[in-house]
Amino acid sequence: MIENYLNKITQGDCLALLHNIPDNSIDVTFADPPFNLNKKYHTTKDKLALQEYLDWCQIWLGEMVRITKPTGSIFVHNIPKWLTFYATFLNEIADFKHWISWDAPSSPMGKTLQPSHYGILFYAKVAKENKFYEIRYQHKRCRKCGYLHKDYGGKKMALHPFGPLVSDVWTDIHRVKHNKYRDEHPCQLPLHLLERVILMSTDEGDIVLDPFAGTGTTALAAKRLGRNFIGFELDEQYQQIAESKLAQEKADSKIGQVWVSFFLEKVATMRNVDWEELAPHYIIPTAIQQVDQTAIVARNGHKEVRQVENSVNLPQERLFALP
Description:
alpha/beta; Rossmann fold; 2 domains; 7 helices
C-alpha cells in the first residue's frame, strides 16, 4: 500500500490516508500541524474549540507513532502551548528524546514575554533501537575579523575544524521572512530546518512521512537528500504547488558522496560520522588552533556548491588529529 503514496504529495484528509499506511513501515514522521490560531489557510478551519482540537491532535499523533518503525523517530513542530499537550499524549506511547528549541523571534504580544522560539518535539518509537546521528554546524565567526564568536579558552585543542555538535537549541536557522522566498502558505518552514532533522535521523533511501505537507518543504528536503517521502495535504492548491516544486528538484545535496545540507552556498549541517570522508574536500589549517581565526575553505573555491566532483586524487592536508 505504501507504493501508492511513495514520492508524491497525495491530496486528502491525513486521518483517512494514514489508515492506509501499515504499522511500523516509516523511518521518520514529521508534522507541522495547524496552530489553531485562526491562520488563513485556503480550505482548513484553523479555529476549533479547545477540546475538539486536542482530540483531533491525539488521533494523528497516535497514527504517526503507529506507522513509525521501531528504529524510527517522530518529530512535531508547533508553539510551546500546544507542544505541552502533545507531549502528554506522546509520553504514553513513545519515548521522549528532546524538546528542540528553534530560535525564531516574533513580535511582542502585549502583557507577556516576547515569544522567541518554536519547539520541535523529538520522540523515539523505541529508545533502545532509535537511529540517530550526531550532527555539526559551521563555527560562528565575526564577519569582519573572522575570529570565532565562542571563546574556547584552554580547550582549543578539542576544536573540530568544521564546527561544533548541534545541541537542542538551534540559533543558526532563521524563519522564511521575505515574500520572494515564500509560497502562498501562512506557515512555511525553512528547507534547511527539515534537512537537519532528516540528516540526524535517517539514511539514504529511508522514508519520511509528513501528514501536513503544505507546499512540500519536508518532501523537498527528503528528495534533495536522497530519501524517499510521503506527503498528505488537504488543500488541493498547496498540493499542486508542492508537486510543481518537487518536479524541479534533484537528489543532489552532497559533496562528493556525502549528503549535506546547504544554505547560502555553504554547508549548514553535516553528520559527524561523515567528516572523515568530507574533510578531503576542504583546505584546513595545518594546526588545529588556527581554526580559531581561519575558517576551512572548500577546495573548489569559496562556494561550497552542491555536487562537488569526487576526485580520487584529492590530497590529504589534515596534518593534525581530529578530536
